[in-house]
Design goal:
mainly alpha; 0% strand; globular
Length: 87
C-alpha cells in the first residue's frame, strides 16, 4: 500500500468514526485512536457489504450511511466494553 492510500484510510477513518460518534447519544469514554480505528474498520466493512451493489460514479450515499451506522454500533460496543472493564 502506498503512503497516499494509508493517509486516505486515516482520513476516512477519522470522518466515519467522528460521524458515528456524533450520532450516538451521551458521552462516550473511549480514546480518539479507538474512534479512528472503529471508523477505519467500519469503512472497510461497509465498502465490502455495499461495494458490489455500487452503480454510481459520485458519492455513494447508501455506502456512507452503512459505514456511519457500523461506526456508531462500534462506538457503542467499545464504550460499553470500556465501562464494564472499569467496574
Amino acid at each position: 500500500m502506498e503512503i497516499g492510500g494509508i493517509i486516505s484510510a486515516l482520513i476516512v477513518g477519522i470522518v466515519i468514526g467522528a460521524l458515528g460518534r456524533l450520532i450516538v447519544p451521551g458521552k462516550q469514554k473511549i480514546a480518539i485512536w479507538l474512534t479512528i480505528l472503529i471508523g477505519i474498520v467500519a469503512a472497510l466493512i461497509g465498502t465490502a457489504i455495499v461495494g458490489p451493489l455500487r452503480d454510481t460514479s459520485g458519492i455513494d450515499w447508501i455506502e456512507l450511511i452503512v459505514q456511519v451506522a457500523l461506526a456508531a454500533f462500534g462506538v457503542i460496543a467499545a464504550s460499553r466494553l470500556m465501562e464494564s472493564r472499569k467496574s
